[in-house]
Amino acid sequence: MNTKLLYFFLITVNLHLTSLGQGFNKVYNYTTADLWSTVLINNSGYYLAGSTFPISLDTGYALLSSLDSAGKEKQTYLLGNKGHSVYNMKLRPYLNTYLAIYSDRDSASAKRRIFLCSLDSTFQIVSQKDTTFSDSFNCVPTNWCVTRDSGFYVIGFMSDSCPGCVPFSWIAKFDKHFQPVFFNRFLYYYRTDFYDLVVDMDDNLYLAGSLEYSAGSYKQALVVKLDSRGNTLWRKVYGSSYDDYASRLCMISHNRIAVGGIAYFGNSWEEGRSRISIIDSNGATIRDKIYTPDSAISLEYIKIICPSADSLIACSYPSCNSGVQDTFFLMSIDTNLNVHWYVPVAPSITHHTEIYDFQLTPDKGYIFCGSSNYGTQDAWLVKMDSNLCANEWCWHTTGMPSIEAELSQLKVYPNPADDYLTLAFDFKESEDVHYTILDLQGRVLLKEGVKFQGNSLEQDISLHGLSAGMYILKVDFKNQSFSRKFVKR
User: Fold this and answer.
1) Could you give the CA distance from residue 431 to residue 435 in angstroms, rounded to a whole number?
2) Do 375 and 443 have their domain in common?
3) How far is residue 310's CA from residue 331's CA, in Å, rounded to a whole number?
4) Residue 273 lies in a domain
5) What is the pTM of this model?
């Protein structure tokens, strides 16, 4: 076994914490570029895993941190090989330890290997191994999960260093001693990509991804089922739009799988919609539905979890061209694919938010992690409590698909808006109405009051001075409060 010395650095980081109850919303700026790719829940708080690049993209480390239940940092470690850099860090509970799997890149040779590292609860090394399945290709793992026999599956892709070479996907199975059991390559047609995997009760494996029939052709969502020895049981493609991706999986029951993905309805990144399908164990579609919180918003990616046999939680975020790229959307969905509610979630970060992981928390809230993909590429973490509070602002849940659910007394239009937003009232008596415009972090941008003498009246609100993006309009009257999300173009 090729062993290497791992370098640990214990560092102290000042975290600026803004909280209300158990919610918090914060940004990490350790070095030049940071991201959190995994968040885990333990008995006393959270474990976070990701990567950081303190000097350049040629030098990077795995980033591991433990937080208490209030979001206060306890310990943070940098883990990696000197002169190497770390990519695609994934941390999961494994047996009585934690297993970190990531891509380790040698800066001198530019080769990437799979690195397996078992850690205890204080991030001390229990065992370790680096491996590759080809001397001529780069190995990059993208995800992994535990098998029923205490081994684990890893999926990823390989690419040659030659210009224009098309990468192919692979799956490997390891036993609990980190020894490889099998390794399979996948290259259906021109290009095949896998993004997620899930294991059923019989140790069969489902893979989600996309395939491309020829260079430049449209992609189709792909789901593949394998047995425990890596043999393909079936392969199905889904979707009928321009491009379709199957990016996330979760098991609803022993014979029902939820598939989350994206459907594009035009030859543009601005025309994406979240898509969720439920399939059976033979790959047949039971239900299929496409979601969008508003026709003005293009959604790029979706992540789903299955907390019970009758519910899904989905999280999707817009494309960087939609004008609301710093916000993502949390949806509660039943297994008939009906949305019970959805809310926007906004990390305290200002450039192109990307979410990499989210989990349910013991207090019936949610925790999310990710990074920006612009500038310093800061990592971020958002914790929402059971009242959907992340900081000073608590979100009102909203029904789908319309962002401006109409009331008999109050309407808001147009949405999206340009220079003015109009409130339309229908009161039988005189009413004092107060309205407030907030950004998605809950900061007040405009607050006004107006008295209406009855009848149907309209009030125009100037949006001059507001940049393009999503905002909250909060209206108070009759001792009631209503909130509406709107987009300024």
Assistant:
1) 13
2) no
3) 14
4) yes
5) 0.74
Q: Which of 120, 119, 40, 102 is nearest to 369 (CA)?
A: 40
Determine the Cα angle at 196 with ends 255 and 183, to 5°.
100
325 shares its domain with 469: no
How many domains does the chain contain in total?
Answer: 2
pLDDT digits (tens, 9 = 90+) for 448-479: 877 666 566 678 899 988 988 778 787 776 65
The domain that contains 322 carries what CATH number? 2.130.10.10
Q: Are residues 43 and 184 in the same domain?
A: yes
The CA distance from 323 to 340, in Å, is 26
426 within some domain? yes
Q: How confident is the model at residue 173 (pLDDT cuts 50, 70, 90)?
A: very high
Three-class DSSP category at 86: strand
Q: What is the percent of the chain with per-residue pLDDT over 90, rounded to a whole number?
A: 12
Phi, then psi, of 88 in degrees rounded to 5: 55, 50
DSSP per residue, 97-146: EEEEEEEEEETTT--EEEEEEEE-TT--EEEEEEE-S-SSSEEEEEEEEE
Cα–Cα distance, 235 to 169 (Å, whole number): 14
Q: How far apart are CA 359 and CA 355, in angstroms?
A: 12
The residue range of the domain holding 185 is 7-384
CA 25, CA 18: separation in Å to the nearest integer?
A: 6
